[in-house]
Every structure is written in structure tokens, then in C-alpha cells.
Write a structure and sequence with these properties.
- The structure is a single chain.
- The protein is mainly alpha-helical.
- Helix content is about 60%, strand content about 0%.
- The radius of gyration is 16 Å and the shape is globular.
Length: about 140
């Protein structure tokens, strides 16, 4: 699911999936900011370096870092927020809790993030939906 989501967001970033416009654009920007605040998203240059170059920020030459900083200054706010959303989804904990059951809080956070992606055309595959909504057979059922 992570690879498919990352690929989907990358398609938006490179322009193969259109950015939202007008009132819908404003609504999704607001929704992304609120969702990122709720789920603990954070913004820093490292998130962008991995998406833009595939390289880790640490150890990157200063010249490349400056190129990324310039791109960040020029990038559309939707792209910046989608990059942060992607990184936040990558860095948060698993959907499985300590005893093998579904982590409902984490599931709700993922659902909020995926609802944003749906505005760009994302749709779940059956198994992905089962994972995010806690219905997958691999989760330990409460007895």
C-alpha cells in the first residue's frame, strides 16, 4: 500500500495527475493543514529531499540542499502539503498494535489522509481498505 500511495503522490508532483483548482483547491489545502495538524505531521527540508531527489538530506552536498530549498520556495502549496502528507504517512506507526490487533486511532488517521488523496482520484484496492479500516484477516480479533 505504501509503494502505491507514494507512486500516486509522485504522479501528482510530476504533473501526471492534475492539481485541484479554484474553490476545491482552497478546500483541500485547508483540509491538508488541519489533517496534518491532527495526525502530527511536521515539515522540514529532509521530507522534500527524499521526494525530489530520492536521496537522504544528511550527507547531501550543500549545493544540492540549496537547489532543494529553491524548489521549495517555488513549489505549489498543494505539492508541498502532499509531500508532507506522504512523509507523515511514511513515518507514523503501524496499523497493528502491540498485541497484533488493529490500531483504531492510527486507522482513523490514515483514513483522513487517504480521504484527501481521494480528491485527486485515489481509490483503495480491497486489501488496502481492509487494512486501513481494520477488517483484514491478519489482525488479531478481540476475544
Amino acid at each position: 500500500m505504501d509503494a502505491r500511495r507514494q507512486s500516486f503522490i509522485r504522479m501528482i508532483i510530476i504533473g501526471k495527475i492534475e492539481l485541484l483548482k479554484g474553490e476545491e483547491r482552497q478546500k483541500v489545502i485547508e483540509k491538508m493543514i488541519r489533517t496534518l495538524t491532527e495526525v502530527g505531521g511536521w515539515i522540514n527540508e529532509r521530507r522534500f529531499s527524499e521526494v525530489y531527489t530520492g536521496k537522504e538530506w544528511y550527507g547531501m552536498p550543500e549545493e544540492e540542499r540549496n537547489e532543494i530549498r529553491e524548489r521549495i520556495r517555488q513549489e505549489d502549496i498543494q505539492i508541498l502539503l502532499l509531500t508532507v502528507l506522504n512523509g507523515t504517512m511514511d513515518s507514523t506507526r503501524s496499523l497493528v498494535n502491540y498485541d497484533g490487533g488493529f490500531d483504531a486511532k492510527r486507522g482513523r488517521e490514515c483514513q483522513k489522509c487517504f480521504k484527501i488523496l481521494m480528491r485527486y482520484g485515489w481509490s483503495y484496492e480491497r486489501e488496502e481498505a481492509d487494512l486501513v479500516y481494520g477488517n483484514h484477516e491478519l489482525y488479531k480479533k478481540e476475544s
